[in-house]
Records
---
Amino acid sequence: MIKSMFRLGIILALFASGACVALAVVYNITGPVIKTQEERALNTALKDIFPESDGFSDITKELPSSDPKIQILNAYAMTKGGSLLGVAVKASGPSYSGNAILLSGINVDGTIKHVRVLQISDTPGLGANAANPSYYVDKAKKITFTGQFEGKKVTDPFKVKEDVQVITASTITSRSLTAIIKISADAASAYISQKGGVK
Amino acid sequence: MKRSIAVFLQGLVIENPLAIIMIGLCSALAVTTSVANGIGMSLAMTFVIVASELIISAFRKLIPESVRIPIFIIIIAAFTTMVDLVMKAYFPDLSKAMGVFIPLIVVNCIIMGRVEAFASKEPVPHAVLDALGMGLGYTWVLVGMSVVRELLGNGTILGIQVLPESYQPILFFVLPPGGFLVFALFISLNLFLKKKWLESPLGCPDPEGGN
C-alpha cells in the first residue's frame, strides 16, 4: 500500500517535472519577446498620445486613485525639453466582463488629449466596439467612443448619456470606461496643479 | 490502413465533438462572435489536442491507471500554457482578443474526453489521426458559426465590411442567445451531413466495431 503510494507519487512527480522543463524552455524563448512586445506597445502608445514629447518619467507613485475599484497601473509625466506637456495615465477598472485597461493623456491646461483602449474583454460587436476605430458613437461626425473625450475639460461632469455618448446596447461598458477616464483625469490634474500647471 | 482513415474521418461529421458528442460548448459559443477569434481558437485547440494525444498515447503504458487524470491535466495544461505564451509573444493582438479562453482550453472537455476515451488506449499514429479529425471537426463548426454570426451580427467578415453600409446589423447573432440559435442550426446541418455520409459509399462502419 505505502509502496504503491510512493510509486504513484514519484511517477506523478516525474511527469510534472517533465512538463515544467518543457514549459521553462518555451518561457525562456518567448519571455523576452513578450517583454519587448509590451515595451514597444507602451512606447508607441505614449508616442501616440503625446507625439511631440521627447521624454517621459515614471510618476506612478505620485498618482493615487480616488476610487478603490479603479487602479492606476502606471503614470508618466510627458515632457518636451524639460517642461511638462501633460500626463499619461494607464488605469484599469472593472467593465462588463473583466477589467478594461485605458491609457489617457491629459494636457497641462486641464483638457483631455487622447484616450486609448489597451485592453477590453467585453462582448465583441458590442462593448468591445469601444476599441474599434471604425465604430462611431456619432456617425455623422465620425467620432469614436474614445474620440469624443478629446478636448474635453477634466472638470466636466462626465455623465453618461448627458455629456458622454454611449455605445449602443453597451451602457455598462460606456459607464465603466467613462469612470476610468474620469478617475485618471482627476488624478492627473491633481498632479499637474501640484506641479504648478494651469488648472 | 483502412482503419486509420476511418479514425480520422470519424471526428469530422459522424462523431463531431461539438455537434454530435456535444462537449466543449461553452468556449465554442463564447468565441464565435468574430471569424478571427473562431480561427484563432480552433488553431490553438487543434494544436493542444494533437500534442496532448500524441504525448499521452506515447506514454500510455507508463501512466498508472489510478493517477491518470492528474497526469492528463498536467500534460494538457503544459501545452495550453505554451500556446498562450507563443500567442502572447508573436500574435499579441489575437491573444488580447481571445482573452481568457486560451487558458480555459485546459478544461475543454473535448481534449479531456478524447485523451481518456481514445489516446490512453490506442497507438500513437491512431491517436494523432483521431486528434486531427477531432480538431478539424471542431474547426469547421467553429469557423462556420463565427462566419454566420459575424456576417449577420456585424455585417463584416474578418473585420472587412461585406454587406452594404445600409445593412442594419442584427445584434442578436453576436449575443449569447444568437449563439445558441446558430449552434442549433449547425447541429441540424451536421445531422443532415451524417445521414448523407452514412448512405454514401464513403460511409464506413464504426471503427470500434460496435454501436
Note: DSSP finds eight helices and two strands in chain B.
---
Amino acid sequence: MSLNDRIARGLESGWKVTDGATLTANHTAEADVVIVGTGAGGGTTAEILAKRGLSVILVEEGRLYYQKDFKMDELTSYANLYQEGMSRVTKDGAIAILQGRCVGGSTTVNWTSSFRTPDATLNYWGRQFGLEDLSPDAMAPWFAGREERHSMSPWDMAPNINNDILRQGCEKLGFSWQIIPRNVKGCWNLGYCGVGCPTNAKQGALLTTIPGALDHQTHMYHGLRADRLVMNQDRIESLQATAMASDGITPTSVQVTLKARHFVVAASAIGSPGLLLRSRLPDPYERVGKRSFIHPVNASVAKMPKLVDPFYGAPQSVYSDEFNFSSGVDGDVGYKLEVPPLHPAMSAGVVPGHGDAQVKNMASLPWMQSVIALLRDGFHADSPGGTVSLRDDGSPVLDYPVTDYLWQGLRRAFYTMAEIQFAAGAQRVRLMHLDSDWYSSWADAKAAIDALPMELHRVRLFTAHQMGGCGMGSDPKQSVVNSFGEHHHVSNLNIHDASIFPTSIGANPQLSVYALAARNSTRLAQRLRT
Amino acid sequence: MSNLLPRHENQDAASLNRRSFLRTGLGGALFLGTVSVTASLSGCATAPADRLGAVETRMDASYRFRFLTADDIDLFEALLPAILGSALPAQPNARRMAIAGTVERIDAGIHQFGPANQKELRQLFDLLNFGLTRITIARVWSPWPQVSTEQANGFLERWRSSGIGLFNNGYMALTKISNVAFYGYQENWHLSGYPGPPDWAVQALPQFRTS
C-alpha cells in the first residue's frame, strides 16, 4: 500500500492505534480525557485537546477503514461502514437511517456537503433555548476556522447532470438555487463519497482531525464498544467497554476499562443518548433521548430523455433553499432540496418494487435522476421529534412518529420535486411511494399526489442526519447540556456531537458539528489545563 | 449485545417489551412471540444452515451460512424468482447459480445487520416458514418449496397493497434485502446499465494494485 496515504504512513510511524479484535485479555488504561466516538465531534475534540498537551484516548465502536479498503464497492461499504450494515431503521421500521459506523463516523461516508448552521436556526436557538451566545456573529469565526481545517469551499467544477437537472428545474420555475460547498481537496469528481473516498480527497475526520490527534500521542481504540460510564459519587470514574471481534459485529469477552479526569461523549444522536441511558446518569427531568430530529427525507425519481449517469460525479453540488424558510423559521415545515447519487444497490434499496416492473426500473438507471427533500423538523410545537430508548439488549433505538404537520410538508415536497423534474424535461416521474406509478406529465403527477395516502410504510422515508436527544439549553429542566456541551448534572462530562442540537439544522449538519465541537473543545482545554 | 445491561435490568426490559409487543416494529406482529418456539418443536429448522452439502442443494458447499436456516433458504428460493423476475437468467443452471449466490449474499448481509435487526428478521422468517402463520398471515397454502412463482408474486402483491403497515414493512424488508443483494453485485451491474467504477480511476489507484 502506498505510503502517500496519511493513515498508512501514520500507522507505519508508530501511531498508538489498538484494534479491539487483537485484544486477548481485559485491560485498563488512563488519560486526561476519554472521548467516545471518532466522527465530526469526537475527531475535532481529540485534535484540539491533544494539541493543547492533554493526553487523550479515543474510542470507536466501528473499525478503522481507509484508502486501502475503499474500492468503490457498495455492498462491502454498506456492510462495513454503516450502522447495522445499512439496515438501521426507526423503531417501527418506517424510516431508513443512513449513519456511519467506522473511524471518522458519518464524515467517512457523507456526500461532503458543508453548510454553516443557518442564521435563522441560530437565532431561533437563542430565542427558544437561551442559547444567545451561539449567535451567527459569535459562531462565524468557528465556522470559518473549520471551513479552513476541512478545506470547504463551493464546488468549482461543473455539477454532474443529476445535480444540474435540479438547477435547470429551479431556473425554469424561478426558484432559487446555489452551489454546495464541499470538504474536498484535489477531488477526482468520481462520485463514490458514500462508500469511502477512494482518492483521499474528502477532508472528513478520517484524514484531518483523527491524524492530527494521533500525531499528538492520542491513543485510539477501534472495534471497541462503549458500554457504560461508571459514576463514583458525582463524577464519572471510568468507561466500561467491550472489544469486538474482527467482523465488527460480535462482542468478545474482553473488557476494557478506561479512566480519565474528563469524558467527552460524541457517539451520535442515537449512540450518545443510548450510552447515557445505559449508564443511568443523572437525568432528573428525563430529557435524555427526547427531541430527536432527523431531517425526514422523501424522494422523487425521474426518467430523463438523455443520459444522466447518476452514479458518476460529485454526488451533491446544487441545492435549493426556496422552500426551506419560506414560511418563516417556525411556520409550515420547510425543506431543503438536494440530489442523491444513484448507484445500483442504493437505487435498488430506495426504489420500491419487485418482478419485471423492478427490472425495468433498474434498467433505466443511466437515465434516472432523483431529487430529495430534507424537512427541517423541530421548529414547531407539532414537530416535537422522536425518542431514543434502549432495546432489551441495551442497544439504542429511535422511535420517530411522523406528525400531520410533517406529512403536510412531505406532500408539498412531493409536488415541488415532481414539478422541478418535469420543468427540467423529465419524460416520466415517480414518487418514492408504494402507490405511485410513473407519471408522464406534471398534471398527472399533481393529480396523483393529491390522492396519495401519506402513511408510514407507504411513503418511503429516509434520514441521513440524526440530531438531538441530548439537547442543549440554558434551562436544565428542558435540556441535557449547556451551550458549551457541558452536562448539567455531571461535572466531568461534555457532549460534543449532533445530539446536542435542540432542533434540526435545516442543512447538512457536519459543519455545525465541527464548529460547535471546536468551540466547546477550546473552552474545555482551557478548563482542564488550569 | 448481551453484556450491555446488567442481568436484572435485562429481565425487566424483557417483560416490559412483552407488554409493548403489539406496537413494535417489523417482527413485532401479533403471534410472533411464540412462533419461534413452536416452529422448533414442530421440526422446522431453526439453526443456521452452516455448510450445506453440495449434493442435496445447489449451494456452494464452501459457503458457511451464519444466519439463514434451511427453511429460510427454501423461502428465498421461492421468493427470488418473483422478486427478480426476468433479471434472473433463463438457462436453468445459470438461474440456479444466480439464486444461490443471491441467497448467500443475503446471508452475509444479514450477518452485518447485527443482533437487533437479526432478531426482527428471525421473527419475520419464522412467521413465513411456520405452517399455521404462513397460511393465516401470508395466505400461502403450500410449503415454500412447492410455491410457484405466480403464487409467490401473489403473496408479495398482497403484502405490498395491504392496508396493514406491518405487511407493507414486511414486503419492503423482503424485497429490499433481495434487490440490494442482487443488483448491487458486480456480476449484475449490467442490468442497471452501470459500468462500474471508471476504469481510468481503477488503473490509477493504489488499492486496486495486486502487488
Note: Residues 404-423 of chain A form the longest helix (20 residues).
